[in-house]
Each structure stands twice: as C-alpha cells, then as structure tokens.
Design a protein that fits this description.
Length: 516
Amino acid sequence: MKTFFFGEGQLTSDLALQIAKNKINCEIGKLAKINIQRSRKYTLDIANSERTVYGINTGFGPLCDTKISKEKIKLLQENILKSHSVGVGPLVPDLIVKLMLITKVHALSMGYSGISLEVLEHILFFIHNEIIPEVPAQGSVGASGDLAPLAHLFLPIIGLGKVKINGTTISASKIHTLYNLNPVTLGAKEGLALINGTQFILSYAVLGLSRFYNCLEAADIVGAMSIEGLLGSISPFKKELHKLRPFEGSQLVAARMNTLLGDSKMVASHEYCDRVQDPYSLRCIPQVHGASRNAWTHLSDLVTTELNSVTDNPIIINSQTSISGGNFHGQLLAIPLDYASLAAAEIGNISDRRTYLLLEGKTNGLPRLLMKNTGINSGFMIPQYTSAALASENKGLCWPSSADSIPTSLGQEDHVSMGSISGRKFNTIIDNLEHILAVELICAAQAFDYHKPLKSGLILEQCHNLIRTQINHAEEDHIFSEDIKLAHKLISSGALVKKANETAKVHHIDLSVAFK
C-alpha cells in the first residue's frame, strides 16, 4: 500500500479521501519530524522568555492583553479545548471527522505551528485505529478557525469527550485504557494550534468536491438519455459551435454529449424531422453543465492550495519571530463554496426541467406521463413533484453564507466568514441533487424503452441495461419511492458513472477530454 507523508507530500482532495478510506497509508515524514521539533523548540524558547506573545503566554481573543504566568501555561492550553467545546446539532459524519484529523495533521506537520511531535503522533494513532471523536456540526463561524468543531475533535486526546470505534461510542478515557495510552498533556501554544484552522470547512469541501464531480459526470449521462427519450437534436453539441465560445467546461460537456450520442440509432431515426430547435434544458446542456464544471474546477484548485497551507495562529518562524495574522480566516473557501453550491443547485434545476419535458408526451413518441394507460394510473407525474420540491429547496439553500457576518469575541473577531455553514450547505445541496438526478434517471430510462428496438450508442445502452437490472419498466402505478431509492444508489455510489467509464475504456472511447 502506498504511503503519504504528512508535512512533505502534496496533499490533494483525492489523496485525502483515499487516506480517510484506508486506501493509502499515512505517516509523518522524516524531514517533517525535524521541522516539527525545531518549531517546538522555538515555541518553548519564546514561552521561557520574558516577551509577551499571543497564544503562547497570553489569553485568547479579547483576552490577548492578559499575560499568563509560566506556571499556568499548560492549564491555559487544556482550558481552551474545554471552553471552546460548545458545538450543538447533529454529529458530523465519520468520514468528515477523519478528514479533519488528516488535514489537521498535514497542516501542523509543516513545522510552523510549534506543536510537539508527541501530540501529532497521538492524533496519528487515532487515524490509524479508526478512533472517531464525536464532533457536533454547528457552532463554527469560520474565522479564528473552526474553533468549536476542532475543540471537540481534540478533546479525546486529553482524555475528555467521546469517540466512536467499531460503531460503538465510548468515553475517551476508556479508549486510552483500552489501548494502554496516556492522555496528552498540552504545553505552550498546543491547544491553540489544535483549534485554530479551517479543517472543518476544508473537510466538507473535500467531500463535496468528490460528490459534486460524480454528479456532474452522472448529469451528462442522464441528460444524454433524456435527449434520446425526447428525440432531441445533437446539433447543439457540434465542435464548430463551441470553438466560438471556448469555455473549458462547456467544451468538455459538448464533447461528452457528442460521444455519448454519436452512434445512436435513435438520433439517426429523426435526422430529417421538421423540429427547428429543442428547449433550453436539452439544447443548452453544454453551457449549463459546463458552467458548473468551471465552478468545480475553481473550487478544486483553491482546495488544493488550502490542503497544503498553514492556517493556525500565530505562526512560529524562529525563536525571535512569531506572526499573529489571519491565516485561519475561512473566507478564501467560503466564497468558492457558495459559488459551487449555486453551481450544484443549477444542475438539479435543469435536470428537473428535463424530467418535466419527459412527462409532456407531445411530439416525441412518448405517452403522456410516461405511461400508456393513464387516468387510473398517474404514471410518473408525482416523482417529478419530488424533483421540483428538492430543486426549490436548493434555491433557498443557495443564499451565500459568506455574505453574512456576525461579530464575535467582544468585537475582536468583527468579521467572520461563516464558511462552515457554506461547507455544510454545499453537501446538503448535493444530497438533494443526487435525488433529483435519480428522478430524471428513472424517467429517462422509461422514455428510452418506448423507442425500442432502436438502440442508442454503446455507452448509453450499457447504462440503460444497468438501470434495468435494478428498476423495471412500469406500465402500472406502484410505490415509486422504491425506484427513486434504487436510482439514487446508482447515482450516489458512482455505479452509473463507473459503468459508462468502463464501457468507454473497453471500446477505446475517451469521455474525459474536450474537443481536440
């Protein structure tokens, strides 16, 4: 198994997820250990001097003007974890918690935070042994770091709070007894280094990026199936058109649509029809899906930068120099997360419009509501209600959290990012998007059936076959929620995208590049 070395390697969102899912091992690099120990020595030198340095021998936030005696420095660091553990709401998913641990160790291993190697090795033990601290989801304002969630995250290393192991929740004190460990005793700056940072926002961004990318890939496939069902035109996907407006995202999507639909007999069957043009939700797939892909790329680039950044405060340069700044401020992720949230919501918005078109039953050979015997049967009318409800909910969630700021810390922290809320909302929007795409998927597959024995291209045929192994064609009403659940699993698990990519690979088809 490959090993990633914290403090030395270049961490990406994909690598972070692979580490979190135990597909890649992780250790602190040898050079990183030297840098960590050097930074720790600098911090202890400052603590033992007569100088007043924020976070090392002062209080925190508005108490930065309160000098702390050398005898009480350790108590100060323990107290900061206790006092800042004020989170409320549902617990953060285990995968997010593990990503928080991983991204925090990497940031602290760069050697500018003054934390001891012993503390980092204790956290690494939690990562290696799947010990998951309980972290409430709400309470961070996304500036001065994700203070509340990070405080909860690290309570267990000092023997407080609760953790989950093998699906069972136990006290942190018991986990130390179980593994014959001693709780960590925090020294100068260590508590502050642990809770200052953007790892809560960052971890939600990392997970959201992966999920959103899967949705973008799936949306192209499902959209292409809807075009087949609606006997739509492929002219809007021609290379000549998109060379004249060469945005990266739209060019990629247009090329993918061309490839997915290129050898289709369904497309060929209406080549000389008298329809002039299709509705926007079909015709403008490259522009709409492409704009969302551009947003994904932008967020991905910024997340990679943040993954390899030092985001606590103060930063320790040497024994004489520490810098108290604002690297903990979440605005640099909050704004692109809000942008990506809008981009994800728009994929759901256009998907719902395609579902609506599939139900109209006008001049495309489809029965109204995608069922022949309607009246006694409502057909696929009501699944679209669910899609519409979720699309509308996403519109409300798109209000940018980063547009708001409430002063905290007696005005010392007078502008905050609310990026923690941006990250959580981004993933909630993706939850809804996966279900919206699931509804379109079952409707597109139903429409697909009505054009048999005509066949689509190789990739869409295999995707349709996959759907039909899970969900049957319907000519009578039944409990559609079961179909939606199965379709959702095909979307959210990545199975649909995997089938498309595997088929493409077997037939030497490239789905991953724009027009050449």
